[in-house]
């Protein structure tokens, strides 16, 4: 079975002897010599007892941890304010003393793997429209992690990009189809650019799409939540960690994750923006959710009306392309003909109707 993620060379990673190589592992500048000696002793023990691949993974994590500890600058990020709490950690807004006017978010991960995965993904998407820029990654000493408690020490810092669509949609329903078409069109363009960078998101949900008001009063869309994203080469095989009511039925059935699965999740999102919740009466039951997905998969036009029929056509087109191959023009043509005499405008900003309450509370028209 093919595996996704990092691969490790089978060749020895040490030059002469394990003892000599361990002694050359870089230490934190302020690391106590006794702690360093203990670390060396444990590493030597691991070399003597663990299988080679498992040892190399452990060493990789040790080096990553040491590097991230060195990146930490005490008191750089101030005034954390809780924004959200997710499966992988806590998200807070912070102020950077080096860039006080730059809105930033600190995401505090439960573990090192999620931090490293997210950091790598943001780096691979750097410069692409629709993705925040990544600023910093570090491990905070436990004694300084007052806000997070004893478990949240692994931190990524990146650009703040507005409020989630989940919150905006909840207070805005019903939303006009012109806005829905425009938002869906832009989302699919962002997803497509991610696929071109050879990544799949694997967690397209309302909470992972944000809207941000710009100084010109236009809105910009962003895609976040990249700690679940994985490379397309090879196709991710083990996707049990992302099975949810937002995942495609093919992923739920244990198939390798494909680009079309991101688009299917995008269709579910578009349905919700249109006020159509496929899973409203499932009570969160996994079997009932799976049944609804199969019903929609077989006859998507039964779940829409004349105004939203284009969404069923979009789903059918995605299914056809999953067999016949991806075709940008055919897929995006559906957005262009969704509403007569209306062409969604999304570059560089979204042309949508909204009402602003207070300073930043967006209500979609």
From TrEMBL:
Highest taxon listed in the record's lineage:
Eukaryota
Output the InterPro entries linked to this UniProt entry: Kinase-like_dom_sf
Q: What is this protein called?
A: Protein kinase domain-containing protein
Which gene does this sequence derive from? Cnig_chr_X.g23869
């Amino acid at each position: 079975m093919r595996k996704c993620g990092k691969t490790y060379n089978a060749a020895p990673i040490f030059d002469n002897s394990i003892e000599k190589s361990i002694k050359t592992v870089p230490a934190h500048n302020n690391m106590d010599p006794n702690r360093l000696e203990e670390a060396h002793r444990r590493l030597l023990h691991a070399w003597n007892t663990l299988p080679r691949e498992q040892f190399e993974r452990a060493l990789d994590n040790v080096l990553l941890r040491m590097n991230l500890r060195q990146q930490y600058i005490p008191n750089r990020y101030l005034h954390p304010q809780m924004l959200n709490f997710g499966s992988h950690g806590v998200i807070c807004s912070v102020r950077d003393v080096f860039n006080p006017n730059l809105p930033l978010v600190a995401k505090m991960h439960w573990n090192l793997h999620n931090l490293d995965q997210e950091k790598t993904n943001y780096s691979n998407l750097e410069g692409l429209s629709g993705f925040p820029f990544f600023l910093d990654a570090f491990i905070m000493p436990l004694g300084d992690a007052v806000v997070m408690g004893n478990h949240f020490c692994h931190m990524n810092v990146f650009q703040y990009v507005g409020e989630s669509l989940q919150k905006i949609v909840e207070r805005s329903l019903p939303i006009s189809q012109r806005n829905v078409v425009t938002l869906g069109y832009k989302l699919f363009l962002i997803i497509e650019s991610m696929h071109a960078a050879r990544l799949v998101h694997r967690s397209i949900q309302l909470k992972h799409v944000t809207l941000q008001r710009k100084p010109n009063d236009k809105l910009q869309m962003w895609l976040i939540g990249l700690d679940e994203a994985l490379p397309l080469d090879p196709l991710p095989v083990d996707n049990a960690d992302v099975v949810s009511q937002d995942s495609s039925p093919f992923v739920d059935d244990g198939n390798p994750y494909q680009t079309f699965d991101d688009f299917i999740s995008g269709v579910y999102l578009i349905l919700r923006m249109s006020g159509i919740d496929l899973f409203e009466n499932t009570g969160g039951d996994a079997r009932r959710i799976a049944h609804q997905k199969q019903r929609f998969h077989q006859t998507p036009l039964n779940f829409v009306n004349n105004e939203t029929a284009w969404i069923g056509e979009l789903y059918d087109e995605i299914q056809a392309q999953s067999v016949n191959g991806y075709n940008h023009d055919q897929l995006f043509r559906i957005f262009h003909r969704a509403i007569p005499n209306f062409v969604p405008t999304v570059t560089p900003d979204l042309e949508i109707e909204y009402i602003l309450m207070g300073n930043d509370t967006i209500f979609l028209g």
